[in-house]
TrEMBL record:
It comes from the Eukaryota. The chain crosses the membrane at residues 376-393, 432-455. Pfam families: Glyco_trans_2_3. This is Glycosyltransferase 2-like domain-containing protein. InterPro entries: Glyco_trans_2-like, Nucleotide-diphossugar_trans.
Amino acid sequence: MAIIVPSYKEEIDILETTLRVLASHRHAKACYDVFLAMEARDPNGVAVATSLIDLFKHKFRDLQFTLHPNGIEGEAPGKSSNVSWAAKAVEKKYVNQPDWTDVLITVMDSDTHLLSQYFELIFQNHLRTRGEIGLSDVTFYMPPIVFDRNASRVPRLVRMADLMWCGAGLSCFNGRARRDAVAIPTAVYTISLSLACLVGGWDTGSEAIGEDLHMLLKCYFATGGHLRTISIPSPASQCNVSTGKSGIRGWAANHQARYSQGLRHMWGSLDTGFAVRQWFQLSQRRDSGSKSPFGRESSLPSHVLLRLKLGQHSVHQGEVKRYTWRNAVVFTRLFEAHFLPNHLFLVLLASALYSSLIHPDNQWQILSYALDMTSYMRAAGFALMTIYFVIFYEKYHQVCISAREHEMRRAGLYEEMEDDFSHRKRWTLTAIVDYFIFPISGTIFGSIPLFQAIVSHFWTEKLVYLVSAKPVKADKVREQWKDGV
């Protein structure tokens, strides 16, 4: 298992915690090959990576760092170009080994905490899939996410924005593997090295700013729509955006940081155009046989090319269709992510403006009836969404907290991380107020950033990539960790 942890100007405490959690897994020393993907633009990148390697070098099968150069022509600074550089190092290290098709690549954010169960379930699914398909494991593995670490210490609007983000991911989670299912990854996912080679690796341009969704779409269309997406029932623990500042200025800074993160997320609406282009090219792929659609075959060894071509042939089975139910599901997911938040905001705004006008006679009665009906539908939708979160999400949050507490106790890390468990209680005033501000939080951190991104795309597709602000451990805890490693 190759694990890529991209980092740019991240606090060393964040990375220490992530590696300590990974090192607590029972198969870490035998199976985990960790790549710290650092940036040359980060003046402390090499020093941080070297320090972490000294601390954890005996905890994993291998631990190294890659240094993504600055200023490569055609590349845009960001997570995708950094991961692409690290993935090339993974490919160079493993692609000539006899069992290279069994190498799995996990990409995870620097603040993500994963349970050992996540990797164990992936290994099981991978072996089963290899037995079914043969030469290629064209599967995209991903966990749901949960913001369960510092949610009680961030402003309410920020907390609810992330909770809605988590709920959106859960909406496409599949308890059972279905061939027509398409789930959207968030922050963490795993693919096989052979699939990464088949699609030509990670894109590095500004259109790939939504790195996780972009890679899913790239793999999906490169395999002619035959990519399997499997949701792994082992949630990834995430931190809410937090600047660490206190008082009024800290409150404002946290909201500003969350808006910047929302704008970066919504800038990924560029992926809708990417998906449309790839969809139109599907018929061309059908006629091109087993040739890779992304043109990186010539850089791979001949025996690797043979395996990939045979694997791609077994996956495609001569059928690459443009009009399928799965393609409709993919574009439905894109509509939910990149159109629906803005559509809802504009409909509400237009309805409010129209309702404030004096209606001219009876010629607009049908429009009035339509607006009244849709307002009732929106109210019903909000009520159902609230019920969903109160009944299902609250239980999900509790289960996630319990599972992580159990594993941290088993690993002897619970006392050090006791403050990193943000519990929620269903029937409290705090929870009730949270749900009532759903529309406000969704508009500020969803609809408005999406509207800004879409309008900005008329002029440019480039956005300055800002790393999300994360909470930092106290120095005394950091020293305890160093002594205990």
